[in-house]
Write a structure and sequence with these properties.
By secondary structure, the chain is α+β, with helices and mostly antiparallel strands. It folds into two domains: about 80 residues, 434 Repressor (Amino-terminal Domain) (Orthogonal Bundle); about 90 residues, hypothetical protein PF0899 fold (2-Layer Sandwich). Helix content is about 55%, strand content about 15%. The chain contains eight helices and four strands, in the order H-H-H-H-H-H-E-H-H-E-E-E. Strands 2-1-3-4 form a four-stranded mixed β-sheet. Strand 3 and strand 4 form a beta hairpin. Helix 1 runs antiparallel to helix 2, helix 3 packs across helix 4 and helix 3 packs across helix 6. The C terminus is likely disordered.
Length: about 180
C-alpha cells in the first residue's frame, strides 16, 4: 500500500489497467487531477489547509475533502482558491501578524501582560491597506492570538500598528510599520 499521493495514483492506474476499467480510470484521473493540483500549489506556497481556508474563505474541511478526492469543488470554490491575489493577501496578513506579535512580546516579557490574550491590538492603516484589513476584521483576533483588534484609518499616508495591553494594564506602544 502506498503512503504518498503520487504512488497511490500510480497504484490505482495500474489496477484499473489490469482490470480493463479505462472509463473509471479516466474519471479517477479527472477527479484526482484537481486534488493533486490544489495540494501541490498549496504546498508550493507553504500554506497549511487552515491558512488557505482563512485566506480563501473556503472551509478547511472542504479543502481537505477536495484534496483527498472525497468532494468535487464547485466553480465558485475553484474560483476562490485560484484567485491570483489570494497568496499576496495572505502574505500581507502574515507580515502584519509578525509585526503585531513583535510588539506584544516585550509587553509579555516585561510582565505587563501575561499572554497575548491580554493585549488589544489597534491598527492604524494606510488607505491602501484598510480594505484588506476590514475584509478580514473578524479573523484578525484569531490570526494575532488576541481577544480584540480595532481598525482605524490613518490620517496620513503612513501605516502604524499600536499594541495596547488589556484594560487592567495601561502601557501603550505604537510603532511605524513602513
Amino acid at each position: 500500500m502506498s503512503y504518498d499521493f503520487k504512488n497511490l495514483i500510480e497504484d490505482i492506474e495500474a489496477e484499473a489497467k489490469a482490470e480493463g476499467s479505462e472509463a473509471e480510470l479516466r474519471e479517477l484521473r479527472r477527479e484526482f487531477s484537481i486534488a493533486s493540483q490544489l495540494m501541490t500549489l498549496r504546498r508550493e506556497k507553504k500554506l497549511t489547509q487552515k491558512q488557505l481556508a482563512q485566506a480563501s474563505g473556503i472551509p478547511q474541511s472542504e479543502i481537505s475533502r477536495i484534496e483527498t478526492g472525497e468532494a468535487n469543488p464547485t466553480y465558485a470554490t475553484l474560483a476562490a482558491l485560484a484567485e491570483p491575489t489570494l497568496v499576496a493577501r495572505w502574505n500581507t496578513l502574515v507580515l502584519l501578524r509578525e509585526r503585531v506579535l513583535a510588539e506584544i512580546e516585550p509587553l509579555r516579557k516585561n510582565k505587563q501582560i501575561g499572554s497575548s490574550l491580554q493585549a488589544k491590538v489597534v491598527i492604524t492603516a494606510a488607505a491602501a491597506e484598510l480594505p484588506l484589513l476590514e475584509r478580514y476584521a473578524k479573523q484578525l483576533p484569531m490570526l494575532f492570538i488576541v481577544p480584540d483588534v480595532a481598525l482605524r484609518p490613518s490620517a496620513d499616508r503612513s501605516s502604524a500598528t499600536a499594541v495596547d495591553a488589556a484594560a487592567s494594564v495601561s502601557p501603550n506602544v505604537c510603532v511605524a510599520t513602513r
